[in-house]
Design brief:
Layout lengths: L3 E5 L5 H7 L3 H7 L9 H13 L4 E7 L2 E11 L2 E8 L8 H12 L5 E6 L3 H9 L3 E10 L4 E10 L7
Parallel strand pairs: 4-5
Antiparallel strand pairs: 1-2, 2-3, 3-4, 5-7, 6-7
Amino acid sequence: MNHIDLRPLDDDDLDAVFEMMRDREAITMAAFTAEDPDDRAAFDAWIERQRAMADVLSFVVTENGGFAGTAASFTVDSDREVTYWIARHAWGRGVATAAVRHLISREPIRPLFARVAAHNAASIAVLTKVGFTEVSRNVDFAPGVGREIEEIVFALPPALDGA
């Protein structure tokens, strides 16, 4: 069985993250992506802003010690959200599910939210496996597909036992 873990994002990871986020199939699945995924200067500015924000926790997902993606938590309009992006070479083996489990175990705030394009069945499956439930849907412009699409908002409620 593969060992999946999270570690802090560092400068040595940026080239791999940039390349991963340029994968056209992954961009279509994620949909809500950078307007120009090939613009390295825009990527560098975005990642610099994220890393400068105290409320953003950014991690690299590792599989057996190697790069397998990213995961992060952040705040939007006073709601705590999680996000993840798994490199294509790590798809279909439970890497995303394990990574999200690790991420939510490090994030104490509940409810915790996540957003996913309605056509991204794999990501919907990951979120439901770890306890998220659908709370709303909306339609918004998605640069990754170049049109408006439906987005589902999921929430992970507080545990009943307070843990």
